[in-house]
Structure formats: structure tokens, C-alpha cells
Amino acid sequence: MQIFLTGFMGAGKSTVGRLLAARLGCGFVDLDRRIEERCGLDVPVIFRRHGEAYFRRLEHEALASLPPEQAVVATGGGVPTVAANLALMRERGVSVWLDPPVETLLGRLGAPAGERPLYRDGWQAAALYRRRLPGYRRSDLRVEVGPHEQPEEVAARLEALLAERCAT
Fold first, then answer.
1. To 10 degrees, what angle do helices 151-167 and 13-24 make?
2. Beta bridge partners of 27
């Protein structure tokens, strides 16, 4: 089974994903890093040179080409907003929405530094978050993340939640 972590930028998908994969003894895939390796370009460069639509195609291709073995996959923030991506994740495993309060997300993002191509400022990020909410809500599971909760705590809670889900 594959575990797909979804959520907005700054939700902790990569950090929690690595910790969860270690706890489960399985592989970890950061979808953005996989795209960067395939293209030889950083995500912000891909956006600048080719645009968001091109990046979304690369994202879907990377998701579709994942090997079938068990892994924790940190998806990009826009992955669950595409119906074909949701279908792939459902077919291959379980999707989990990491859901910290929006104020926490905005605090983690800080000032725009060019690292995140779709982040210009807090107002714009909050609007993007609201547009993406319907996609996040389609995840199989939702894990509310407290504003001061440590990634290790989230990974442990998620491991227990997944064990409970598999037991039923």
C-alpha cells in the first residue's frame, strides 16, 4: 500500500513523510524532488520556464510512474486538486490530508523567497488554500495538526491511525 500525504505548502508533508516512512520501514518519495531529478531543473525554474500547466502534467506523470511497492509519498500541494491524481491515489493506496490551521501554514511559509512558485504573499496564499480545500477534503483521511505539534508526534499519530484503519 502507498500512503499519499496531501496538504497545503508548509503542512509538513515531506518532514512527516520521511519520519512516517522510517517508522513503517518503507520507502519515501518526495514527488517534487522526483520531478526535479527527471527534469534536471528545480520546481521554481520549471514554473518560470514552462508554466503551471506543464508542471501539473509532470506531476501527474511522476505520480503515475511510481513503482507499486509500499512507500510514503509526499505530494505537491496541488496534486489532490486534479481528479486523475485523486483516482490514482485511491487505486494505489490511501491519501492523508495533513491539516494544520491556515495561520500556522502562513507562519511557516514566511516571506516569499522564490522557493515556492505559487507563493507571493499571505493574502494570495490564503486564497489559494481556500481554492484547494475541496481537493484536500477528498482525501481518505484527515489529520489535524496542532500549531505546536512536532513532526515526530504527527508521524506517530498517523502510524497509529493507519494501523487502526488496516485492522478494520
1. 60
2. 71
